[in-house]
């Protein structure tokens, strides 16, 4: 709404200018007062909200720095523990090396009381305790005993070495060739051919000619004596045999025949008329007369039966077959075609009988059989067949290195004689005997000589057990110091636990253990083989090494305490705890720090995990066992160094991330300030300029008002 006051254009223009200047001065003074050019979203929405976002992210990152700082201290605490544990393990190594250098073994020296020991019964020097398991007895004397022979007996009854067996292939029935037919086959890859000629190297018209031809061809191809052609088992075919010494095989292949199949000679009769009383039939089969009358030929069935009977009697069963063809009789020869059928002399007599009633014609009625001229007639089958020769196989073995051979086919008695002859020739201490049907090698006289059988056929002849050691005959005597030293040091139960030496004619026993050794069979000065009371002595253990065992275990205990005490703020990385550190404000970047083994499994750093067991006195008994513990410590140090390296890498990662986060916070805060902070120098200059503009505007407004006042003077 208008206030009813009218201003001149000059006054209004100067008034507006003065108002704008006042507004600008107010804005500039506000920036100088707050130090910011953007104090609210109204000043610059984009800069205001962008600055707030950057400041918020910087604040989130700043809150992560404390977590990172704690993480660094946790890792350093674990590293402190690792450093101390490593030093402890190295101290344990020093303890073990000190034990290796120590030789403070306790010993005692004894003379030999031969009179008390005597030879009436076996007496012992017994050891127990110390490093000895159970009780070990060492005889201090020997009594007269009969020895036992060293002997090895075959596990099963004796079988003579196999003799040579020649390879042999037998054919089936051979059918002689006729006409243009041929047989072919291969023997060990070489061709054999037979034809129907009656002579020559390929003649195969008869079995005899075929055998001669096959032999001729084999001799030509392989040499005389390589193969022998003979008769098969049945006598109706041939055989091919390899060398008698079994050194070659016989392989038959590529069998073939070019002729026709076998034809069975057959005469099929017509209608047969049964004979009445007083009537007869006669006819000849291959020249043999056949007679039928009312009794034997009254019916076709009777005729068939009686003709078959007469033919079997005349020619033998199987040469001819008579069958009922429904109206008459059929007479057939052999199925393989090896004979013919000829009917002649058909006649009838009496009553109304006629020759035609026989049904076999009235003139000569014949059919000729032919043999099989295909591969079947050869008799060698149609597939490849092989017979393998077996050479003679003598037995060859050794008796304590001396070679022995048993010829093929040699029986047990002859084998014993042969072996003894061979062993005698080399002055062997052993001989062969027959033991219940089994072959046995034994010492000639009991001497405790070890027997060992060897060679290619030793297991075949004797089975699995090829060694044996008997006992020499015992001689009554008290053992000398040197014999006792050898017996004690050679006993497996005392090796590395007790040591014996000759101490100027006395027996010195040294206890190679940390525990006390009990010796029974000696007084304080003499070995007498006695028992109980004053005959039991004690040799103390190594006290220096025993003290080092305690030192080792103390260090091991300290190792575990270092591991337990290496926690920071409730987290102990050496106990397998997981330290998770978030590395950005969204939680999308984090690191998990945890002790792990080479396979990635969680690892607790302590004596158990490192394989360092509590040491027992027995662990320090021998240098071998100490070296085994040293090896374990070396492996533990490798694990500690590897874990230390892993923690160092983790520490470097977290420290780098901490520096990165600080730099990011500074960058974010600087960026945020650049968006909203005012330039005080520029704003001060702006204020001065505005003050000058305000003064000029005031003056201009005053001058504009003076023009209006001049109008008033006209009314005065």
What radius of gyration results from the CA coordinates?
A: 62 Å
CATH top level assignment of the largest domain:
Mainly Alpha
Principal-axes geometry comes out as: flat
CATH architecture of the largest domain: Up-down Bundle
Please provide the count of β strands: 33
Number of helices: 13
Average pLDDT taken over every residue: 88
Strand-pairing-aware structural class: alpha+beta
Strand content: 15-25%
How much helix, percentage-wise, in residues?
A: 25-40%
N-C termini distance: 33 Å
- Name given to the CATH homologous superfamily of the largest domain: f41 fragment of flagellin, N-terminal domain
Ranges where pLDDT stays below 50 over 5 or more residues in a row are none
Largest sheet: 4 strands, mixed
Q: What would the CATH topology of the largest domain be?
A: f41 fragment of flagellin, N-terminal domain
Strand arrangement, major sheet = 27-28-1-30
**How many structural units, i.e. domains?**
6
């Amino acid at each position: 709404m208008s206030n009813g006051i009218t201003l001149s254009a000059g006054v209004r223009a100067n008034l507006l200018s003065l108002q704008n200047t006042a507004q600008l001065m107010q804005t500039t003074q506000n920036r100088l007062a707050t130090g910011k050019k953007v104090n609210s979203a109204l000043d610059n929405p984009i800069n205001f909200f962008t600055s707030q976002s950057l400041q918020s992210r910087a604040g989130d990152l700043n809150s992560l720095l404390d977590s990172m700082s704690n993480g660094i201290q946790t890792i350093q605490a674990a590293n402190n523990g690792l450093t101390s544990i490593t030093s402890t393990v190295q101290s344990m190594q020093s303890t073990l090396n000190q034990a290796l250098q120590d030789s403070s073994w306790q010993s005692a020296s004894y003379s030999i009381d031969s009179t008390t020991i005597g030879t009436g019964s076996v007496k012992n020097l017994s050891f127990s305790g110390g490093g000895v398991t159970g009780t070990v007895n060492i005889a201090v004397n020997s009594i007269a005993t009969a020895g036992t022979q060293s002997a090895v007996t075959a596990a099963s009854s004796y079988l003579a070495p196999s003799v040579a067996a020649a390879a042999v292939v037998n054919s089936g029935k051979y059918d002689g060739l006729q006409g243009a037919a041929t047989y072919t086959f291969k023997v060990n890859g070489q061709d054999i051919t037979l034809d129907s000629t009656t002579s020559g190297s390929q003649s195969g018209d008869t079995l005899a000619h075929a055998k001669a031809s096959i032999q001729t061809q084999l001799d030509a191809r392989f040499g005389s004596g390589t193969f022998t052609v003979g008769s098969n088992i049945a006598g109706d075919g041939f055989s091919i045999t390899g060398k008698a010494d079994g050194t070659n095989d016989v392989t038959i292949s590529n069998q073939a025949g070019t002729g026709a199949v076998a034809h069975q000679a057959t005469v099929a009769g017509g209608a047969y008329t049964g004979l009445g009383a007083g009537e007869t039939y006669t006819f000849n089969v291959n020249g043999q007369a056949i007679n039928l009358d009312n009794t034997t030929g009254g019916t076709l069935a009777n005729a068939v039966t009686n003709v078959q009977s007469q033919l079997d009697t005349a020619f033998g069963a199987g040469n001819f077959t008579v069958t009922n063809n429904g109206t008459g009789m059929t007479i057939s020869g052999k199925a393989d075609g090896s004979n013919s059928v000829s009917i002649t002399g058909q006649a009838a007599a009496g009553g109304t009988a006629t020759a035609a009633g026989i049904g076999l014609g009235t003139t000569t009625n014949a059919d000729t059989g032919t043999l099989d001229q295909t591969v079947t007639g050869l008799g060698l089958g149609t597939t490849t067949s092989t017979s393998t020769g077996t050479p003679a196989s003598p037995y060859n073995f050794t008796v304590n290195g001396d070679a022995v051979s048993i010829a093929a086919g040699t029986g047990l008695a002859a084998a014993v004689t042969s072996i003894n002859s061979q062993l005698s020739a080399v002055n062997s201490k052993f001989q062969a005997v027959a033991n219940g049907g089994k072959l046995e090698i034994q010492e000639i006289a009991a001497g405790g000589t070890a027997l060992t059988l060897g060679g290619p056929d030793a297991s075949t002849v004797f089975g699995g057990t090829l060694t044996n050691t008997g006992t020499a005959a015992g001689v009554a005597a008290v053992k000398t110091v040197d014999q006792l030293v050898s017996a004690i040091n050679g006993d497996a139960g005392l090796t590395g636990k007790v040591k014996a030496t000759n101490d100027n004619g006395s027996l010195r026993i040294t206890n190679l253990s940390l525990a006390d050794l009990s010796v029974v069979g000696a007084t304080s000065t003499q070995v007498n083989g006695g028992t109980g009371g004053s005959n039991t002595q004690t040799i103390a253990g190594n006290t220096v090494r025993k003290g080092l065992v305690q030192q080792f275990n103390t260090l091991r205990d300290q190792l575990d305490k270092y591991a337990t005490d290496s926690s920071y703020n409730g987290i102990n990385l050496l106990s397998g705890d997981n330290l998770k550190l978030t590395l950005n404000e969204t939680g999308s970047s984090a690191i998990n720090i945890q002790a792990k083994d080479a396979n990635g499994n969680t690892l607790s750093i302590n004596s158990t995990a490192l394989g360092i067991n509590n040491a027992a006195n027995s662990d320090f008994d021998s240098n071998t066992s100490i070296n085994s513990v040293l090896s374990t410590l070396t492996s533990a140090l490798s694990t500690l160094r590897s874990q230390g390296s892993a923690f160092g890498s983790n520490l470097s990662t977290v420290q780098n991330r901490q520096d990165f986060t600080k730099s990011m916070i500074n960058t974010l805060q600087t960026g945020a300030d650049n968006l909203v902070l005012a330039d005080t120098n520029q704003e001060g200059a702006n204020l001065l300029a505005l003050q000058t503009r305000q003064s000029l505007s005031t003056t201009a407004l005053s001058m504009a008002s003076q023009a209006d006042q001049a109008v008033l003077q006209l009314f005065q």
